[in-house]
Protein: N-acetyl-D-glucosamine kinase
Amino acid sequence: VWMGKIKIGGTHSKAVLVSAEGHILAETDGPCTNHWLVGVDNCINGINDMVQRAKIKAGLDPDTPVCSLGMSLSGGEQKAAIQKLIDDMRERYPKLSQSYFITTDAIGAMATASDYGGIVVISGTGSNCKLVNPDGTQVGCGGWGHMMGDEGSAYWISHLAIKTFFDARDNLVTSPHDINYVKKAMEEYFQVSDLMGMLPHLYRIFQKSHFAGFCRKLAEGGSAGDALCQHVFTEAGKALARHIVAVLPKVHQDLFSGELGLPVLCVGSVWRSWELMKSGFAQVLSEAQAHGYSHFQKYSLLTLRQSSALGGAKMGAKNAGASLPLDYSANVNVFFSHTFNQ
Amino acid sequence: VWMGKIKIGGTHSKAVLVSAEGHILAETDGPCTNHWLVGVDNCINGINDMVQRAKIKAGLDPDTPVCSLGMSLSGGEQKAAIQKLIDDMRERYPKLSQSYFITTDAIGAMATASDYGGIVVISGTGSNCKLVNPDGTQVGCGGWGHMMGDEGSAYWISHLAIKTFFDARDNLVTSPHDINYVKKAMEEYFQVSDLMGMLPHLYRIFQKSHFAGFCRKLAEGGSAGDALCQHVFTEAGKALARHIVAVLPKVHQDLFSGELGLPVLCVGSVWRSWELMKSGFAQVLSEAQAHGYSHFQKYSLLTLRQSSALGGAKMGAKNAGASLPLDYSANVNVFFSHTFNQ
Structure:
């Protein structure tokens, strides 16, 4: 009995094959398989390809379906779309899996870290925040994609830096800092020589993941001391913290009272730039705490040491009537804690 | 000798056939033919179709090319793309026109209103601002499309209202006013029952012109007294005025000193909601004037009484060595004037 678990991201996807005892047998990578971005057909083909390669890599028979396939993807709460995805997978690839379970990337991550709950803040290509209370109830903020949010994500950071440059050139808004590093980095990353050259990257050949990838250059600039790069990451820290503040009123009392204070699980590549976001993030949470959350005394930021696919596999197994033991303490790492001044 | 002139918009296009004496012989309409949005092939086919229908409507031989074809479209400053468009048109439809001229929608509008210059502020599906000085030099602000600007446009107004609703629901940002009118109008216009339902309209089936069309419902709400609708239009007024402030430092002294003060040519359907935008617009210009433009004593807002295609035809004719006399005073209408307090 093996269980597959797939994490579907805006830029790339990851499949993990797990034994009934919870051991990882094989991992495979794939391209972006988000059905919102690539369509249902590409999504299904990509998933099948990753799982079949994982079976072969683990030395298993590719014609024998896995016991369950747990998938986490953004947009995983849309019931009708998800059911269609599962129906199509069953029909097209009957040897893929016996049962299917789909959840959001946030819930998959949370299930990897804890069965008690907390707040998940995702900032990768896009961004999203989900509160999971100890009783299992969920409250979300964000996750609407780049056209209606994604605040604090790699896409948003890239966009903010480039928009600051456009507005400065147009004399529409004065940039808070020198724009030369961002200008040069943009010209190099997108291979353009002027603002006009950016238009295809914004429209005809726009690819969210490529656009968001510019964030890495900005992180390099910020680490090297460029003030505008540091500014956009500080703003991202504020934006991500605002997602937490948005769900604070719905946080169950018990989630504040553990040893770690409010546990915030941080998922996605943007969190690698935590040092650049820290001041903005801490400022917004301190302001919120000071304005009426007296029971909010401490928070801790956690990262996953294991792929969030593990939680997806666990939930998939549970859905199929099996249980997958997870050692939560081995799965997470506390990278920041803050206790507010009394 | 007849001259065609085409105005290419984000939502629809218009062709006008003009005699050598400047009389309009026929007008035809077509769909959006912006090559950035619909591709070069659809653009060329759409243009040919409109011109040929205009020839037939005017009782002229469709196989005889017009003398010149002047076209105004957003993105008309991109030399390489424009040359390719012209080359493709010549090759595919040799009976279309003898000569071609392409300019931006802003410059086409300005050429219809005046040969002395002024500031054009376009707010239709998208937005754009262009200063044309008496010596012909141009300075632009905006016009980068919905991914990087379009502030104050119908798209932007629609987006601002919907984003305000999303953020209120997420508890991310408190709405300044009751959201119920916007909620109901959105559900009705997009035929959705919740926020999730908006996702296809933002991504898979996103059409800028349809999304921007929601602005009409907001204008209705604003006129009927809804505070949030009024708020988004006030913000649009501010945003459009900021485009003018952006080019103010480059305005030639002489443009301030005419009878009308600084002439601002207002183009596009959003200006029909001027009454809703007025307070925000006037506020931003007053603030800018108070902060160091002592020679900026008065401004007047003008609309075109004739299609901006007329200016495009004039420029196309000029490019072909002909001249098309225009009675500018008959082409414009002053709908607002303001003199600052001394």
In short: Chain A is about 45% helix and 20% strand. Chain A has two domains: 2-103+306-326, 115-304. The mean pLDDT of chain A is 89.
